Amino acid sequence: MTPVLELRDLQTSFEMPEGTVHALRELSLSVSRGEILGLVGESGSGKSLTGFSINRLISPPGRVTKGEVRLHGRDILPLPDSEMRKLRGRKIAMIFQDPMMTLNPVLRIETQIRDVLLAHEKLSKSEVRARALAALDEVGIPAPEERLRVYPHQLSGGMRQRVAIAIALLHKPDLVIADEPTTALDVTIQGQILALVQRLCRDRGTALIWISHDLAVVAGLADRIAVMYAGRIVEEGPIDDILDAPAHPYTRGLIDSVPVPGQRGGRLRQIPGRMPALTDLPTGCAFAPRCARATENCAEVPQLMPFGEDRKVRCVHPLAAGEAA
Amino acid sequence: MTEYIIRRVLQALLVLIVMTMLVFFGVNVIGNPVYIFASSECDQACLDAIITDLGLDQPIWRQYLTFVGNLVQGDMGRSFTHGVPALHLIFERLPATLELAFSALVLALAFGLPMGIYAGLRPYGWGAKLIMSFSMIAFSLPVFWIGIIMILTFSVQLGWMPSVGRGDTVDLGFVEVSFLTLDGLHHLAMPAFTLSLIMMAMVIRLARAGMREVMFTDYIKFARASGVPERRVLGAHALKNILIPIVTVLGMEFGGVIAFAVVVESIFSWPGVGKMLIDAIAVLDRPLIVAYLICVVFMFVTLNLLVDVLYSLLDPRIRLGGGKA
Ligand SMILES: Nc1ncnc2c1ncn2[C@@H]1O[C@H](COP(=O)(O)OP(=O)(O)OP(=O)(O)O)[C@@H](O)[C@H]1O
Ligand code: SF4
Ligand SMILES: [Mg+2]
């Protein structure tokens, strides 16, 4: 079956005065119907940019300079802007991190829902209202009639994120890109939102890309994960296999730095150093300066190679199962 | 909300009281109006009679109290030169000034908003540079100079535009207006444009700055990512947010525009209150000057009050002031 979304060898670059910076390189990944892909990596690794490259909303001077974005097998990169607009919200929806900022502060919830509905469908006033009410009801918002009339600041953070999710799902999109939608919320609310999105996507067979810098969040949610480092995917595969036996030293480091509940005292191991800036990446493997396993073989950028069945890793010295970095 | 308005009204009253003192005492220390009435043969006895008649023999604080007492009853005294109630003269001339000022406001918004929005969206293009240069010139060149140059160019050299008066007016029952006749519009165009330039420059700057800020917010990205057409994103989602500072500044500036109309009215012989003020100052017609100044103060105070109310209508976060933040 063709995947809902497939990125092939994507490259996104920024035209800067001091030269072109490639923020995403050789980026390939895919998500199928009903599948949840976790996209993890530290700040600045290119997670959000991946999302914006998919729906082509990168702010200038950035643009996709290479590769393909295939939606149901069709490359949508060459589409004119007007066609691309019709896919946004209808086929590919997006949810953002900060629910305080995602909803327009000066427009009523009803207006914001209506605008998205009317962006893709011709509906009468009463139809708009019915759809809006149903959408709010579906994400578990009590007394939706009253909520329609309020402004975002009159809702709590959790409620706002529910509204944003309701808006994103209005047209039953085939793919939802969720960019850290729970990071700004309390832990308990976080859990509720996670469960909500998971349920809605599973019920409808929606493919979901869940972006997070928090491996713990992704662990309980995703079917597969892709780990990003400095604009490249360094490891990809089924979540359980990777969490059990990471093959890339960076993934290993990420896992080791997550605190395990009920296991106090064991010192958390941090990855030494920090991610290099895109402007001065090392010539070889970008992780080499921080990697304990680095050798002279790492002086050339490794390819993303198949590893075991259904996994891929970008490392010349991948870890065997259980091996420490 | 009601409490808020009451508080603002009380503040406004206080400002009014202080201003009546400043205006009254300020005007009463300059010149001696007795000589307006005295013929060249008037001897001391005749002068004394005039002084008593005008109440100028009283101590100044008593004169002030009389003035305030009359003011409360809506009586601002009779113009020395015209011999009719000063307020009456002002109300006769005010519509012309208001028409000029409102036309300027409409021009400022009609041209300033699109220019500012465009410059905010393409801040580095040629168009934006041109627009910003225009706004800088409009802001810094003296109004009287622009007015004179316009008259020299369009009236004297080219002979396209009339340079004097209101042209044909239409009587709407309670006011006479120029903008409903072609000839009136023809007369209105140059003075209104001249008066609008400073406001237009401000609108351009505010709209540009607002647009640049708003376009990076998550709610604009969210609206775009949901497929809301660009026209709607800019025309409603972004515009409503950038209007908030513009309304505030324009509202506060509008009183100044009416005051500034003095210059424009003099240049274009526009029969408004500003022109009347200049004439009144020339002959030291105290009641008329005081009445004018009191009216201007009253207008400023009312405008500020209106701006606050309008502002709270535009920004729901203020309207519910004190509620959830
Ligand atoms: N407008 C821009 N101009 C130049 N470089 C940019 C721009 N936007 C993003 N980048 C670069 O792209 C890289 C990836 O940014 P991105 O926002 O995708 O990171 P992220 O993984 O989402 O991080 P975070 O966890 O902080 O959200 C950054 O390192 C940044 O340098
Ligand atoms: S390629 Fe070399 S430097 Fe890069 S992660 Fe693997 S071992 Fe470390
Ligand atoms: Mg991000």
State the main characteristics.
heterodimer, A: 325 residues, alpha/beta, Rossmann fold, eight-stranded mixed beta sheet, four-stranded antiparallel beta sheet, globular, B: 325 residues, mainly alpha, MetI-like fold, 2 domains, two-stranded antiparallel ribbon, 13 helices, 2 strands, binds adenosine-5'-triphosphate, binds iron/sulfur cluster, binds magnesium ion
Quick gist of this model?
With 325 residues, chain A is of the alpha/beta class.
Tell me the helix content of chain B: over 70%
- One letter per element, helices H and strands E, the order of chain B comes to HHHHHHHEEHHHHHH
Oligomer: heterodimer
Question: Which residues of chain A form runs of ≥5 with pLDDT under 50?
Answer: none
Q: What's the domain count of chain A?
A: 1
Which class of secondary structure composition applies to the elements of chain B? Answer: mainly alpha
The third-level CATH topology of the largest domain in chain B is MetI-like fold
Largest beta-sheet characterization of chain A: 8 strands, mixed
Number of strands of chain A: 12
Biggest chain-to-chain interface with counts: A-B, 36 and 28 residues
Reading the helices and strands of chain A in chain order gives EEEHEEHEHHHHHEHEHEEHHEE
> Total number of β-strand segments of chain B?
2
The outline of chain B comes out as globular
Residue runs with pLDDT of under 50 for 5 or more positions of chain B: 321-325
CATH domain class of the largest domain in chain B: Mainly Alpha
The percent range for helix content of chain A is 25-40%
Q: Distance between termini of chain A?
A: 37 Å
Count of the domains of chain B: 2
Name of the CATH homologous superfamily of the largest domain in chain B: MetI-like
Give the biggest beta sheet of chain B.
2 strands, antiparallel
The pLDDT mean of chain A sits at 90
Family (chain A): Belongs to the ABC transporter superfamily.
Organism (chain A): Histidinibacterium aquaticum
Subcellular location (chain A): Cell inner membrane
InterPro entries (chain A): AAA+_ATPase, ABC_Ni/Peptide_Import, ABC_transporter-like_ATP-bd, ABC_transporter-like_CS, Oligopep_ABC_C, P-loop_NTPase
